[in-house]
Amino acid sequence: MIRQNQKYLNSLQVILDMLMIVVAFLAAYYVRFFIMKDGIITLEFIRNFLPILLMLPVYFILYSVFDLYHSRRIKPFAQEIYSILVANLLGFLILTLGLFFFDLSDFSRYNLGLFLIFNIGGTLFERGCIRYLLRHYRKRGFNLKHCLVVGTSPTTAQLLDKIKAHPYWGYNILGIIRSDGRKSSVFGGYPILGNVEDLPHILTKYYADIVMIATDENSAEQLGTLLKVCETSGVKTHIIPYYHKYVPAKPYIDDLDGLPIIDTRHVPLDNPFCSFLKRAFDIAFSLVAIFLISPLLIFCAVMIKCSSPGPILFKQERVGANRKSFWMYKFRSMRVQTDEEEKDKWTTKDDPRKTWWGSFMRRTSIDELPQFFNVLKGEMSVVGPRPERPYFVEKFKQEVPRYMIKHQVRPGITGWAQVNGYRGDTSIEDRIAHDLYYIENWTLSFDFKIILMTLWSGFINKNAY
């Protein structure tokens, strides 16, 4: 039933998308020639409209290629927005090239531009409305996927917590299949329906769309049997591996002559083009930023000199990409110290070493601005994991699992952990978890998002001392 409903939803989505393309063109045509009233209609309406009709199959293919017709229960809307933007820009490029190739040079350029804007805006609005309605009805118990969960492990408990926290995913847990020797009849607030050996009988008794297998390493040998039982019953199977903490959410899987190889730490920035793109953006952004904030830099330099004796800039050894050390620049916010005094001390809320102007700079992150010069030198990036001092790197790599993975990319002035509040005296484990998420899910649009979050709320932070 769920699969059938999904087919109906996909068909409806295709119809709405194609209809939106037509409506966007008609709206653009009306605005261009009947509201703006400064254009001359050089082509009759049907010759204007025909290229759009011929483009409908192209847009359908592009939307399909960019995964816009798969289930979006657990996909973030930002990912859908990105796909819509890219698909529409490519479609617009193909349309423009087609008009040029068929010598339709009289086609209104304003009409084309308005069509692009209206189509993107209309599609985003349409998709947003559908997403909202589906989530609303799933919360009310409609359009649900009925699930059985195999396993009574910590992974199972984590899965159940996430499903409870996101009711709009529409997963209805029918019950739990016990995978250990526990005697209780409830796990995570859901009834235990039986043991793993009872799964064939349970599948005949309960209608399930999905069987989620979340067993631990002690039950791994049962996986083949569980899959065979589910396939025999015609039930879709999802596996939540017990080793999920060691692999990224989007693992890179290679094919070794039919043998799948999982890369446990796929880093998008290992791709030369992605690396070049990020570096080019860093240079351009830093040059513009330095030009715009140059009056502030001069003002800060004067205030530092007025507030305490000593140099304007403070440089400190930090560990960067590939575990190489570099000197990171900051505006000096404390009294002058020896290397021994500052190498292994955290800054605290009422730290007596801070100057009065230094306290303000640290609270507003103004002291970090000279790091744009580190970016230009290639030692840092605008966005990335924050670099740490060698003393703490040596300390944390022994205490915090996966800590050293952050050094596979350039450190940043701001980062995903920082805009989520993990600055100063906060959990190192949570900070590293956010850093790893950024490393494994990097896109240029993700960098833009973090920069905007920094500008919006990241400068003043209660944890920045």
Number of E strands: 12
Shape: flat
Number of structural units classed as domains: 3
Main pleated-sheet profile: 6 strands, mixed
Protein name: Undecaprenyl-phosphate glucose phosphotransferase
Describe this structure in words.
The chain is flat. With 465 residues, the chain is an alpha/beta fold. The protein contains 15 helices and twelve strands. The two termini are 56 Å apart. The strands form four sheets. Strands 3-4-2-1-5-6 form a six-stranded mixed sheet, sandwiched between helices. The protein folds into three domains: 2-139, no CATH class; 145-246, Rossmann fold; 270-458, no CATH class. The relative contact order is 0.06. β9 (313-319) and β10 form a beta hairpin. It has helices spanning 2-35, 45-65, 77-101, 109-139, 154-165, 199-205, 223-233, 272-307, 339-342, 356-364, 371-376, 390-399, 416-419, 428-440, 444-458, and strands at residues 145-150, 171-178, 186-187, 190-195, 210-213, 236-239, 252-256, 259-263, 313-319, 325-331, 381-383, 412-414. The model has no long low-confidence stretch (mean pLDDT 83). This is Undecaprenyl-phosphate glucose phosphotransferase.
Task: Give a brief rundown of this model.
The protein is of the alpha/beta class and 465 residues long. Helix content is 51%, strand content 13%.
Primary descriptors:
two-stranded antiparallel ribbon, alpha/beta, Undecaprenyl-phosphate glucose phosphotransferase, single chain, 6-stranded mixed beta sheet, 12 strands
